[in-house]
Amino acid sequence: MKIPLTPPKLGDIMRKAVGAKRILMIVESGLGPTPRGEYVHWDKLRHLNPPNDFSMEEWWAATKYARRFLYKKLPFEDKHGHPFQYALPDLVYKFLHQVDRDVGGRIQAAEQITNPQTRDTYLIGSLIEEAITSSQLEGASTTRKVAKEMLREGRKPRDRSEQMIFNNYRAMRFIREVVSEELTPSIVLELHRILAENTLDDPRAVGRLRRAEENIHVVDARDGEVLHTPPDAAELKARLDRVCRFANEAESEPFVHPVIRAILLHFMLGYDHPFTDGNGRTARAIFYWSMLRQGYWLTEYISISRILRAAPAEYARAYLYTETDDNDVTYFIIHQLKVILRAIGDLQKYLAKKASEVHEVEGMIRKSPKLRALLNYRQIALLNHALRHPGAIYRIQGHRQSHNVTYDTARNDLLELAKSRLLDQRKIGRAFTFIAPQNLAAQLRQINAK
Fold it and tell me: Fido domain location, by residue (predicted)?
């Protein structure tokens, strides 16, 4: 990856402008902070055609002049002691409104998520997806199918890639446990310990900040070019303390939008790179912690890492744009808002697909002579419920009471469904239980097709 070109300085451009009239033209151009609707960096803008009779540099000067009035200083500094800042153009307000609408606590979410009987099924699936893709972003090579089987079956990891994924899953569960607590350095270190256990070349680096002899660089995996040199190890403790204070200042002034606060935590942990390895996974996990703590409950059901993995260069470039343009974190904020919105859109499509599948199979049961000959009305009623509630548990006594039949009749109903692999049968103690399988729709289609 090529490091973006550092933009020309606003002051330098103004000094080169010929005459006060030209300078006034730049200042009063009326051009906003988002050329052509995007918050573009100089490295991209220089390839576009400037408006009016501006030179490329003058167009950039007009853009930067508009941004200067929007900048907000952050309580963070780069490794040279220069503060980070961000802007709030209309584009950011638009994205924040969409996130507030779709991820906040008052949305009308799909039944699969709001229903207590199915909520955990979808939550576990989302945690697994984030665990897999967050690890794959950091180099894990295990296939999604194998990884899902490992996590669902509870077997031990067989190699480092599987260990990374297993650790990520544990970390996501850990976040749920500490979401009501204030963020502390010890929580961040414990989170790193969970994420990095049995995955580092040096096991002694797990759960602690990197040391002076461990100063590292972020390099391009393809050509080895150094993309980022994080702050010295001696600064890390103080910097982590500052990150934790910022994480817990939700009610303080000046106001920082909760979603921006979560994104800034993600950015700073990635920028500081406080660990020898596992920094990206830790930063993304802290983002989830912050979003959940601030009431964005639907965040548990989306995977930002899956979106990031589809375009990792854009993720890295958002950091580089910030570093090369006056520590302007707006580039990273906008990138992450787009990622969140894409992840929400993917979740909505997935839930709509599942709902459509349920309606389709329910219709197939009603219209299929083969299935209606195989199933009685009690079994059909149970399967209609099971389609909407994967993982639901059924017991003989409950089925008996629901349909006012004898114990033997209820028992035979459930055993026949288990024999046809339409329910999973298990024995807990002395009693049988029957569980709605995840692949129930596929099983019904297969029986109907025979």
Answer: 183-335
